[in-house]
Amino acid sequence: MKTSDFYYDLPHELIAQTPLKDRQKSRMMVLHKENGKIEHSKFENITNYIQSGDTIVLNDTKVLPARLFGHREGKEEAIEVLLLKQVENNYWQTLVKPGKKARIGDVIIMDEKLLKAKVVDILEDGQRVIEFEYHGIFNEILDKLGTMPLPPYITEKLEEKDRYQTVYCKNLGSAAAPTAGLHFTKEILKELEEKGVHIVYVTLHVGLGTFRPVKVEEVTEHKMHSEYFIISKEACDVINQTKEEGGRIFCVGTTSCRVLESATDEHGIIHPMAKETDIFIYPGYSFKMVDVLLTNFHLPESTLIMLVSALAGKEHIMNAYQEAVKEKYRFFSFGDCMLII
């Protein structure tokens, strides 16, 4: 299986640069995985596709305002620091630009009074481990000084920080948003509850590896990035009971999908856990838990388009993407969505 098998031609103007004013007004393509049939709908109609007794699974991770700007102590040139993962306490794994300007021992000043960082290690891939020194509460300082780490294909400024957060975000730790969840409003969630749909939350902190291109031609040779997730006993109990009673597991986003497939055993039972997952889902994978998936449109040749191809079939997905381009759907993080049912 070749990476190039997952290429499609996307006009640049179809990449959504800003979120819609009303989250739930996105368009929604409905793809029937059994026969490839396509419907064109709106996200606000999502409740029509979920039945009483189904369980919907949402990733409640919260995006860190992880992009910080500063300068080396005694120097004027700007340095950008992007937080990737907390190693322990005040130590963080980061991307620093320009990297050559951040040597071990260098101090980067974001704010003289509030926040400084010292480079303590350089990893094999060029990432820097830094130790923060700050005065106050770190998350509050981050919220004040940091900006949202928008994907590289978004070049316009985000006017409202909370538009790159889901309405149910809770656990701080992501370097990117679980974008399929951005369409939900509190009203839609209430409507689902009133319909008798179970709603459970998992946490997976999205890393920037989600945007990393696949650089090998053979899909099976790609080394998948790992991400930390948590799924509780309470969530597992609801999911297992739903399956026992014949309900469907409706997954919101590829991140929730990766959690469920990582935590489910070969007998189709899901177990509580907190660990890293580097699960790589591509065509040929047999799903153990996920029945239905809501997801945005993904980059050509990405691991995410491979994942949705595993669920719906590569031919059906590539046809659906051609249809989305033809119908001028909005693509990627702030774009429209696809319901694979």
Describe the fold and architecture:
It is a single chain. The protein is an alpha/beta fold and 341 residues long. The protein has 2 domains: 3-63 and 160-340, 3-Layer(aba) Sandwich (QueA-like), CATH 3.40.1780; 67-145, Thrombin, subunit H, CATH 2.40.10.240. Helices cover 18% and strands 28% of the residues. The protein has 6 helices and 17 strands. It has a 9-stranded mixed beta sheet. The chain has a 6-stranded antiparallel beta barrel with strand order 5-6-7-10-9-8. α5 (303-312) crosses α6 (314-326). The two termini are 25 Å apart. The mean pLDDT is 95.
Put the structure in a nutshell.
The chain has 341 residues and is of the alpha/beta class. Helix content is 18%, strand content 28%. A 9-stranded mixed β-sheet has the order 2-1-17-16-14-3-12-13-15.
Secondary structure elements and pairings:
Elements lengths: L26 E5 L6 E5 L12 E5 L1 E3 L3 E6 L5 E11 L2 E7 L9 E5 L3 E8 L5 E7 L3 H8 L25 E4 L11 H9 L3 E7 L22 E5 L1 H12 L4 E4 H11 L9 E5 L14 E5 L6 H10 L1 H13 L10 E4 L1
Parallel strand pairs: 1-17, 3-12, 3-14, 4-11, 14-16
Antiparallel strand pairs: 1-2, 5-6, 5-8, 6-7, 7-10, 8-9, 9-10, 12-13, 13-15, 16-17
Helix pairs in contact: 5-6
Residues in helix, %? 10-25%
Element string (H = helix, E = strand): EEEEEEEEEEHEHEEHEHEEHHE
Gap between N and C termini: 25 Å
Characterize the largest beta sheet: strand count, sense, and whether it forms a barrel. Answer: 9 strands, mixed
* Strand elements, count: 17
Q: Using the CA coordinates, give the radius of gyration.
A: 21 Å
Biggest sheet: strand arrangement? 2-1-17-16-14-3-12-13-15
Mean pLDDT, rounded to whole units? 95
Number of domains: 2
Percent strand: 25-35%
For CATH, the homologous superfamily of the largest domain is named as: QueA-like
CATH architecture term of the largest domain: 3-Layer(aba) Sandwich
Q: Assign the structural class, choosing from mainly alpha, mainly beta, alpha/beta, alpha+beta, or little secondary structure.
A: alpha/beta
- What name does CATH use for the topology of the largest domain? QueA-like
Q: What are the low-pLDDT stretches, counting only 5+ consecutive residues below 50? A: none
Global shape: globular
| Name of the top-level CATH class of the largest domain | Alpha Beta
How many helices in DSSP terms?
6
